[in-house]
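Cast an eye over this sequence plus tokens and walk me through the fold:

***
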Amino acid sequence: MRYRTETPLLVVRGWSHPSLPRKILPLGKNYKVGDSNEWSVPEESDFYYKWSEEKQFHVGDNLLFYYNDQVNDVLEVSSDLEFISCDTSSPVATHNTGQDLIKLTKPGIQYFISSKTGQCEAGLKLRVVVRPLFRALPRTRRMRSSPLDRSSSGYTDSDPNPITKHFFLMIWFWIS
């Protein structure tokens, strides 16, 4: 009896990056809030503002809040007004373990304040701008126009797959 061995063959038409499910995020950077100062009332009221502005946060990154849980906590608030006025009446989340890991899961602005009397007003608050996970690819300048650049060929500059563009240009140069 003969056995037939078949080798699976994968045919790739073009490379594209699959969309990531919303709940699964790649490993991001870990940021210890306040660095060596940790999460405590700062000497300068704009300390956490400056700390945040020096960083570029992205979806998937983590904020690590370290503090004395007997005298402090971390509240997430939802608006700029709540942040500015240190309004603790309706937090989105409350963290009070002294070692809180907060994953940045969506682009936008996130606000964190202390609920302890006078601490937020003294500068114990953090505003973080979270950028999207993926950055747009830079557009390349066209070196030379070709028949493949015309829309009648089915290829357009808006093709999201840069491999396709390079593949067609390589074929065009090889033919001409």
